[in-house]
Amino acid sequence: MSAGIAYADPDSTSPPAPSPEASPAPGGKTTIDHDGTYAVGTDIAPGTYSSAGPVGNGTCYWKRTGNPDGELIDNSMSKKPQVVRIEATDKAFKTDGCQPWQLTPDANPPADTPPAGVQGTLGILNGLLGGQNGQQAPNPDGP
């Protein structure tokens, strides 16, 4: 009788099963772990995401853009933890300087967050008014 030696074949013909972290969820990943712009429904799944805030002593910036022209829907720049609702109709989500974002279905955006679209409109209006610190713009038709 002879003793046999078993060898492991590192070049196995069957690929290893993907880990849950390596397989994106249908419609995209549910974790955003670095700066960039992500296509909603492809790169990331829509839903409510939360971040612990900025990296280090920096500032966390994010923005949501809409279909089909990339119009600004909502954005924020903060040194505090953030919660954002990314809608399935959003075109993209951009993040810069934030700690990782995680899909957090039970998280609620802050109560003082304006409805979608209002934040961008307020920014445009402030720009048109020249940042007059809440002063009413002059009426071109007179007093």
Strand content: 25-35%
- SS class: mainly beta
Roughly how many Å apart are the termini?
110 Å
Number-wise, the strands total 8
> Mean of residue pLDDT?
75
Percent helix: under 10%
Taken in chain order, the helices and strands follow as EEEEEEEEH
Given as residue ranges, the uncertain stretches (5+ residues, pLDDT < 50) are 6-24, 131-139
- Order of strands across the biggest sheet? 1-8-3-6
Topology of this structure?
Blueprint: E1 31-32, E2 36-39, E3 47-51, E4 60-66, E5 72-78, E6 82-86, E7 90-96, E8 101-103, H1 118-128
Antiparallel strand pairs: 1-8, 2-7, 3-6, 3-8, 4-5, 4-7
Summarize the structure.
By secondary structure, this protein is mainly beta. 8% of the residues lie in helices and 28% in strands. Strands 1-8-3-6 form a 4-stranded antiparallel β-sheet, with no helix packed on it.
Characterise the protein shown here.
The chain is mainly beta. Helices cover 8% and strands 28% of the residues. It is built from one helix and eight strands. It has one helix at 118-128; strands spanning 31-32, 36-39, 47-51, 60-66, 72-78, 82-86, 90-96, 101-103. A four-stranded antiparallel β-sheet has the order 1-8-3-6, with no helix packed on it. The chain has a four-stranded antiparallel β-sheet with strand order 2-7-4-5. Strand 4 (60-66) and strand 5 form a beta hairpin. It starts with 30 loop residues before the first strand and ends in a 15-residue tail after the last helix. The relative contact order is 0.18. Residues 6-24 and 131-139 have low confidence and may be disordered.
